[in-house]
């Protein structure tokens, strides 16, 4: 690559990313415009800049290839990752102003809900400091639904 190489257009970047999503990030990681810029540098592509990377990720999300995490400009390859931290989202609902309230398990949620009822999970609200470190899934869902119906805490997305 020469220093006179033109930056990729957003369409060219989308095309380059489309075939390389698996290489872009681990399945358990979040993908941000900075991830895209680092991918461009590591593969020798001319960097397109933050705005083009943001637009490319948004386009890949709109086409169904990426999933939102309820944080601006942060996407993932899998829909069951929490908005922050580790684990797998077993339940995500929004509070009264749209902040996510999540029940998070250490493993993906079992297909049969009877297998999930007696598993310990944690729940957290991204709009306020409420949450519980360890609760049975069957109890956590009740607490999350009650909390979300009353909470006006707004998520800090910055």
Q: How would you portray this structure in words?
A:
This protein is α+β, with helices and mostly antiparallel strands and 158 residues long. The chain is 35% helix and 20% strand. It has helices at residues 10-18, 21-24, 33-43, 50-62, 113-116, 137-150; strands spanning 30-31, 67-68, 75-76, 88-94, 100-105, 120-125, 131-136. The strands form two sheets. Strands 4-5-6-7 form a four-stranded antiparallel sheet, covered by helices on one side. Strands 1-3-2 form a three-stranded antiparallel sheet. A hairpin with a 5-residue loop joins β6 (120-125) and β7 (131-136). α1 packs across α4 (50-62) and α3 packs across α4 (50-62). It is elongated and about 55 Å long. The two termini are 34 Å apart.
In brief:
The chain is an alpha+beta fold and 158 residues long. It contains six helices and seven strands, in the order H-H-E-H-H-E-E-E-E-H-E-E-H.
Topology of this protein?
Blueprint: H1 10-18, H2 21-24, E1 30-31, H3 33-43, H4 50-62, E2 67-68, E3 75-76, E4 88-94, E5 100-105, H5 113-116, E6 120-125, E7 131-136, H6 137-150
Antiparallel strand pairs: 1-3, 2-3, 4-5, 5-6, 6-7
Helix pairs in contact: 1-4, 3-4
Keyphrases for this structure?
158 residues; three-stranded antiparallel β-sheet
Q: Strand portion, in percent?
A: 15-25%
Radius of gyration: 18 Å
Strand order of the largest sheet: 4-5-6-7
Distance between the terminal alpha carbons, to the nearest Å? 34 Å
Order of helices and strands: HHEHHEEEEHEEH
DSSP helix fraction: 25-40%
pLDDT below 50 for ≥5 consecutive residues: which ranges?
A: none
Question: Which term fits the overall shape?
Answer: elongated
**Count of individual helical segments:** 6
Mean pLDDT: 83
Class computed from helices, strands and strand pairing: alpha+beta
Please describe the biggest sheet, giving its number of strands, its sense, and whether it closes into a barrel: 4 strands, antiparallel
| Assembly form of the protein | single chain
Number of strands: 7
């Amino acid at each position: 690559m020469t220093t006179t190489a033109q930056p990729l257009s957003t369409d060219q970047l989308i095309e380059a990313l489309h075939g390389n999503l698996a290489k872009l990030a681990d399945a358990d990681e979040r993908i941000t415009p900075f991830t895209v810029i680092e991918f461009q540098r590591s593969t020798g592509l001319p960097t397109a800049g933050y705005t083009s990377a943001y637009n490319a990720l948004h386009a890949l999300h709109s086409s169904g290839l990426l999933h939102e995490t309820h944080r601006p400009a942060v996407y993932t390859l899998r829909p069951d990752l929490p908005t922050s931290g580790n684990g797998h989202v077993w339940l995500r609902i929004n509070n009264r102003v749209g902040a996510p309230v999540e029940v998070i398990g250490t493993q993906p949620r079992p297909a049969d809900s009877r297998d999930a009822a007696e598993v310990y999970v944690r729940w957290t609200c991204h709009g306020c400091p409420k949450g519980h470190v360890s609760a049975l899934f069957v109890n956590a869902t009740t607490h999350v639904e009650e909390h979300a119906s009353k909470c006006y805490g707004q998520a800090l997305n910055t």
